[in-house]
Amino acid sequence: MSPEQFQFNLEFAKDQDHRDALASFREEFLFPQFKGGKCLYFTGNSLGLQPKEAKAALELELEDWATWGVEGHFHARNPWYSYHEKFSPLLAELTGSLPLEVVAMNGLTVNLHLLMASFYRPSAKRCKILTERKAFPSDLYAVESQIKFHGYNPQDNHIEIEASGDSAIIEEAEIERVLQEQGDEIALVLLGGVNYYSGQVLDIPRITRAAHNAGAVIGFDLAHAIGNIPLRLHEWGPDFACWCSYKYLNSGPGSVAGAFVHERHALNRNLPRLAGWWGHNKDSRFQMEADFDPIPGAEGWQLSNAPVLSMAVHKLALEQFSRAGMDNLREKSLRLTAYLEFVIEHVTKNSTSAPFELVSPSDPNRRGCQLSIRCHGHGRGLFQALNERGVIADWREPNVIRLAPVPLYNNFEDIYHFGSILLSILNS
Ligand SMILES: *Cc1c(COP(=O)(O)O)cnc(C)c1O
């Protein structure tokens, strides 16, 4: 189905949903309610919806805790001692990694710091960090505090890649240019795989090659990429990556995050790291030896014992992705987002409003599911009017709305209804 064949009417939307092989996944989620029905939820990029099975998964662990107390570490139905090991195959599948390269642990920003402790090793000559301008604030704080932590000044040692012109798009060629010109001073490149603001997908293999050719280490923040686009981390070869699980991965507010360390580093016992007992050799962990003996692989970066309650939800949420298949989800996602783009164009053509401007890339291969739209001539009032009619979206001052149709639980009908609500607001 090409965008030229799209139609703005309910029958068309229903027909598309009827043909959707992934349609039944929508029934596995709980939606916030509006006037007795599902609201139009477009903020899976911020907090994914709750899988219906989450409650039972949590209750199971609570029961085993009640039944076993401390002995649940070994006797629970899912023994807590080795709980985190269940994530290796699931995360490997979703990120295109080897099982030993991935681990579920901590929060995203914590993992950024832990991985920078190992991979940002500035020397007098090569001490700078390269990021995109307007990185997510937490990443910015993490990067600048790391630079200061090593005794350098962020003003001179933090290079930020500008978006091109007055767009929000970062050109890969610009990153390559800066790496060619200043590469011998850059210790670390740290970029969002999918930009949280524009929804732009970076060409991860291309940028990884450029960073490595410049002699720099490269890591990716995949908060907006994981569960949104297919990933091939092992093959693409970045040194490290990390992500959170509460956005596209539907694992609940503040749930356990994840990290990737490429095989070529994951087995290196001599890499400096900030260590904790859960990263220590499992055979001797409880012997409480004095010498740290890291587990080979990403698991060796763990600090603390596993947060089983949040992991219980994370596990079933990842199993949903495995059942659906990330390539199938991407295929649906491309159609859904193209339909959203079509509907927004249709609506502004049929209203007196100034046309909305796409902040996200227009090339579907350069974006994930999210569209960021600049609403010229409108302010927060438009957002509030949408909200009062049951649309949950995200507003960035002064006039950008971010909408993320998520292929696991959004459908064409959601997008059609959004369009008709938008049209009625613009024409009222
Ligand atoms: C969501 C997000 C975060 C949030 O960090 P937490 O440590 O999970 O609170 C950080 N960076 C990016 C790029 C994000 O999208």
Can you offer a commentary on this structure?
The chain has helices at residues 10-18, 54-68, 72-75, 87-95, 108-119, 137-149, 154-157, 172-182, 204-213, 233-236, 263-266, 308-324, 326-349, 380-388, 412-426, and strands at residues 29-30, 33-34, 37-38, 40-41, 50-51, 102-104, 128-132, 158-161, 186-192, 217-221, 240-243, 258-261, 357-358, 371-374, 391-392, 394-396, 400-403. Helix 2 (54-68) runs antiparallel to helix 12 and helix 8 runs parallel beside helix 9 (204-213). The strands form five sheets. It has a seven-stranded mixed β-sheet, sandwiched between helices. Strands 13-14-17-16 form a four-stranded antiparallel β-sheet, with helices on one face. A two-stranded antiparallel ribbon has the order 1-5. 37% of the residues lie in helices and 13% in strands. The chain folds into two domains: 3-30 and 325-426, Aspartate Aminotransferase, domain 1; 58-323, Type I PLP-dependent aspartate aminotransferase-like (Major domain) (Aspartate Aminotransferase, domain 2). Bound molecules: pyridoxal-5'-phosphate. Pyridoxal-5'-phosphate (PLP) is lined by residues 107-109, 136, 138-139, 192, 196, 221, 223-224, 244.
